[in-house]
Amino acid sequence: MGAIYILWLRELKRYVRSRVQIVVSLGQPCLYLLALGFGLGPVFKQAGHGSYLQFMAPGVVGMTVLFSSVFSGIAMLWDRQFGFLKETLVAPVSRMQIMIGRTLGGATVAVIQGTLILIICLIAGFRPHSWFDLPVAFLFVAMIAIVFSALGTGIGSVIKDMQGFQLVMNFMVMPIFFLSGALFPLTNLPLAMRLITRLDPLTYGVDGLRGALINTWHFSLMFDVTLLAGIAAVFLSAGAYLFTRIEA
């Protein structure tokens, strides 16, 4: 447990000390929130769906957690390049503990990022359906962070060059985000789109966030939690397997 804590703390300290990263990483979510939330708000309201800011704010929080957690895997490439990963792998600690510590560290940073964006949403005018449901929302934030931090760690274990990692992540992350229903309702979709959105893990995280924050569910609380827990277990297992195959 000591190794897990140290690696978790290292990821957290590295994030806190990088003020530029904190500010810049909030830029894209704020752009979506302001440009789409207020730009498409009148259109959404005229269609009889209410406030678009209320609808998309949970999706923007989910997007922030997705981006931050997946790209936490890039830290492994930096550690590989500068030799820290090799020192970690030859330490008398199981690789499973190393993987869990790095994953939890990346997930914690993603939760902090999601919390900051939620605060910005509140400043912009978003109001949750019930303040008492915020713990449920943070449960989904944490589950999204764990799922995609494990995915990022697994991919970072396989890919060795920075450019390749960024290309793969951009190829995966943008479809995951846009097909999750973060920016549009999942009702009345064509059959093909409906099937694709069902295969997207972020769909269930965004649905859980939207249900907890504005009481609008497409599925249900138990369905979303159960499915995300299963996906998290699969990604953690796969990531752990890939991580254990890294050669020191």
From TrEMBL:
Record protein name field: Transport permease protein
Pfam families in the record: ABC2_membrane (PF01061)
Domain ABC transmembrane type-2: 20-246
GO molecular function, one term: ABC-type transporter activity
Localisation: Cell membrane; Membrane
Higher taxonomy: Bacteria, Pseudomonadati, Acidobacteriota, Terriglobia, Terriglobales
Positions of transmembrane segments: 20-40, 52-78, 99-126, 138-159, 171-197, 217-243
Family per record: Belongs to the ABC-2 integral membrane protein family.
Keywords: Cell membrane, Membrane, Transmembrane, Transmembrane helix, Transport
PROSITE patterns xref list: ABC_TM2 (PS51012)
Source organism: Edaphobacter modestus
GO cellular component: ATP-binding cassette (ABC) transporter complex
